[in-house]
Amino acid sequence: MMVACFPRRRRPSSTNADAYSSTSASGQVSARQSRASALPTKEYKLVILGGVGVGKSSLTVQFVHSSFPERYDPTIEDSYRKQAEIDGQSCMLELLDTAGNERFADRRDLHLKQGEGFILVFSITDQRSINELAALREQILRVKNTDRVPMVLVGNKCDMEDDRAVTREQGRALSEGWGNCAFYEASARQRANIDEIFYDVIRQINAQTAGKEGERHSKSIRRKVKELRCGCRVQ
Ligand SMILES: Nc1nc2c(ncn2[C@@H]2O[C@H](COP(=O)(O)OP(=O)(O)OP(=O)(O)O)[C@@H](O)[C@H]2O)c(=O)[nH]1
Ligand SMILES: [Mg+2]
Fold this sequence. Notes:
By secondary structure, the protein is of the alpha/beta class. The protein has helices at about 30-35, 55-65, 110-115, 125-130, 135-145, 170-175, 195-230; strands spanning about 5, 10, 40-50, 75-85, 90-100, 115-125, 150-155, 180-185. Strand 4 and strand 5 form a beta hairpin. Guanosine-5'-triphosphate binds near residues 187 and 189.
C-alpha cells in the first residue's frame, strides 16, 4: 500500500540547510496508489520529537519500513520520505527523526520552523520523558507563533505494561491541557497505533489548510458585500 525509501543519517553540522531535501522515494506503486496519484501529490513535513530513548526512531522506522530495529542506535538526525494514500489523497511524507539528546538540539528551531506537523513522544516506562514534553511544545508554539499547531502526543512502549510509570490518564490529562491534542498510546515493537499517529497529524494539517482556505473565502465574500453596500464596483 505504501512506498518507503531509506533513511539518510545527517550530522547537525551539515552545510545543507534543508534537512528534508536530499532523500528520495523509490519502490513499487500499487494499483490503488496509482489511482490516488492521478491527483497531485501533496507534501507534508512532519517532525518527531521527544526525550532520549523514548522510541522516536523505532516508531518512524516501523511506520516507514514496517520493521522494528532491535538495536538501540541513538539518533543525531535522520530523515525519511514515504509515499502514502490518505483519505484518497496521494501524499509524500517527509519525516524528520530528531535527537533526544539535548547536545544536538541546536538545529531544533530550524526543524520546528520547517515542520508542519509534530509528533511528541514519551515512553510510558519513563516519568521524566512525559515531564520534558511541555517545554518542547512551548518551543514549537513559540517558533510557529501560534497556538494551533497540528500535533499528536504519543505514549510509546505500551507493550511494556509491567514497567509502566506513566498512567494512561496522565497522558490523556496532558493532551487535554494542550487544547485536546490527539493522544495515542502506541507500541513500535508491536506496531500498535503506528499508522494512526502519522495519519492523524496529516488530517490535522489538512483540516487547518481547509480552515484557512475557508477563512480566506469568507473574507473575500465579506469584502465584496462591503463593496456592494458602499456602491463600489465588484469584479
Ligand atoms: N518494548 C519496546 N521497546 C521499544 C519500543 N520502541 C522503542 N523501543 C526500544 O527503546 C530503545 C530506544 O528506541 P529508539 O527508537 O532508538 O529511541 P529514540 O527516541 O529514537 O532515541 P534517541 O534517538 O536516542 O533520542 C531501543 O532499545 C528500542 O528497541 C516499543 O514500542 N516497545
Ligand atoms: Mg532515535
